[in-house]
Amino acid sequence: SRDRFKIAFEQIRDHFRSMFRKLFGGGRADIVLENPDEILESGIEIVAQPPGKELQVISLMSGGEKSLTAIALLMSIFQSKPAPFAIMDEVDAALDEANNDRFNRIIREFVTQSQFIVITHSKWTMNIADRLYGVTMQEPGVSTRVSVKLGGANVA
Amino acid sequence: SRDRFKIAFEQIRDHFRSMFRKLFGGGRADIVLENPDEILESGIEIVAQPPGKELQVISLMSGGEKSLTAIALLMSIFQSKPAPFAIMDEVDAALDEANNDRFNRIIREFVTQSQFIVITHSKWTMNIADRLYGVTMQEPGVSTRVSVKLGGANVA
Amino acid sequence: MFLKRITIAGFKSFCDRVDFEFGPGVTGIVGPNGCGKSNVVDAFKWVLGEQSARSLRGRQMIDMIFNGSSSRRASSIAQVDIVFDNQDRSLPTDFEEVTVSRKLYRSGESEYLLNQQAARLKDIRELFMDTGVGVDSYSVIEQGRVDGLLQSNPVERRIIFDEAA
Amino acid sequence: MFLKRITIAGFKSFCDRVDFEFGPGVTGIVGPNGCGKSNVVDAFKWVLGEQSARSLRGRQMIDMIFNGSSSRRASSIAQVDIVFDNQDRSLPTDFEEVTVSRKLYRSGESEYLLNQQAARLKDIRELFMDTGVGVDSYSVIEQGRVDGLLQSNPVERRIIFDEAA
Ligand SMILES: Nc1ncnc2c1ncn2[C@@H]1O[C@H](COP(=O)(O)OP(=O)(O)OP(=O)(O)O)[C@@H](O)[C@H]1O
Ligand SMILES: Nc1ncnc2c1ncn2[C@@H]1O[C@H](COP(=O)(O)OP(=O)(O)OP(=O)(O)O)[C@@H](O)[C@H]1O
Ligand SMILES: [Mg+2]
Ligand SMILES: [Mg+2]
Description:
In chain A, 38% of the residues lie in helices and 24% in strands. By secondary structure, chain A is of the alpha+beta class. In chain A, a hairpin with a 2-residue loop joins strand 5 (131-139) and strand 6 (142-147). Chain C contains 4 helices and 8 strands. In chain C, a hairpin with a 2-residue loop joins strand 6 (110-114) and strand 7. Chains in contact: A-B, A-C, A-D, B-C, B-D. Chain B binds chain C through residues 50-54, 56-57, 59-65, 68, 94-96, 98-99, and chain C through 12, 32-35, 37-38, 54, 57-59, 63, 67-71, 74, 143-144.
């Protein structure tokens, strides 16, 4: 069980180090066991250095950088232990266009292994969907599904 | 001091009840002293009912509705006790276009009394600025100010 | 296995029954503020066994039942059904299609169904064990929670890793 | 009174000195992720006397000094100056223009200046008392904090009201 965690941890760590560089276009990041001797109890620390910047506490990162780092870590866990589907509710809210585009590319890379359900207000994210559902309230307080016409996306 | 708080509270409450209706295009909201007998110690509860919906705990509101309700309350406090300037960092992040537009109108109404510094990624918010500053990093890790060309806004 | 469809009826703002069909790849859900997008996410969590009303933004589980609007009366029952294709038998059952349902009555009575048969949450959890599908999964990221992984303390963060391990 | 200008030098990502001039109405600050927009907000808070490094997203106050990049060495001093027009004498001083400055040296030494004269934070706070300008003001809403007013418990929320009262 100790070994099982160690193996999974190292695998996620491996994925995270390259996923971060992919999403940030460089830089470096790591996950570290706070207490390597107490592997079954140890907390996990995140270290991140965006390209061109110095290594600092992650709290100093910007809103968008934090979102992107969290996405990198989540996708690394997902890569390590795939699930049939993933649901993401407005995870792109803090991303600018360039970072939203990088996030989109990563999602598209994963579509062979899983289905993605993405809730978003971002037209950039909408553009990479294979189908789009609109949810509106035509009658006050009552949700309905409607079809959406948008650029390249298929509609449903 | 008890009276002073009571007067300020009632004034903010008055503003909030109409500010909410203005930002939501209807509905109703209120702020309530949890403990009216202990006015100097009492916590403050927020009650909100978007138009067409039933009154429910505010936790059930959507991300955008919560942002808009918080904005209504903050602007009510601001209206009650104006400050020379207010700084808002991406408060529009969860708002759709229609709500972003309502937020913009409220800000424009307040410009006679205060200066506003608004950090945003939203082009709708950018459109109501009197001047725009761009902050970028041309050299890695070093912030600089640049001029911004955008639609109707003056640039700096 | 893959996800085929979710059907939401009487749950939160979905007074009328609404289906969402899912295919391969990316399904986007869009729409104005307050219209029900995140309620779809809550429906997923709820039907898969979420026990905490707070985690569904409510105060008590009865908050999950459509409680009326200016144009409709409150519902007396909330129901969500989720349908999976199981042709690859990744779920340990002989059914080619697996449907999980959850119902909640205003009286407080609630039930789970597995392919229309009464089931215990325990059975449903066992069925989905080790598939990555479930309530605590790292595969559901709620609105405003994406930074959570960074903000949580190192020990809280550990919980997500334990599930992935 | 009104805000005229803020000057940021050696503070966080502002290695080089940068000025922002403010006029009446709405000033928008825009730009890509991670480029320094929220750092401008931190500069405002810091020069007006913010005592908590955590509230400025740092671990200790020394984190406020530009600590280098791939192209620059770390700075040895952080300085922010904020300039107000006081022609209406809403600030109780005879100066038509009031400048508040804060400096932090890597040695840990720090100082406040009021119109280029050494001052104590206490003096600066007294000057701005009851103007709505200050660190705890409800007039600074940080990134991700807008919902805070709704999420906080009723007693925490009270603090904001007390300041407005
Ligand atoms: N039991 C219920 N009965 C009726 N309406 C409900 C119930 N529970 C929640 N709602 C309503 O659902 C709405 C919130 O929906 P939801 O959070 O899905 O919005 P959203 O589409 O995600 O919006 P946003 O873009 O702002 O995040 C609220 O207005 C709330 O009043
Ligand atoms: N002392 C420091 N020295 C150098 N760089 C720093 C220092 N403190 C913070 N930074 C950098 O500032 C950047 C964050 O800037 P900021 O939060 O202002 O971004 P932002 O423009 O608001 O972005 P977003 O749109 O994502 O919110 C981080 O990359 C961080 O590394
Ligand atoms: Mg939502
Ligand atoms: Mg920011």
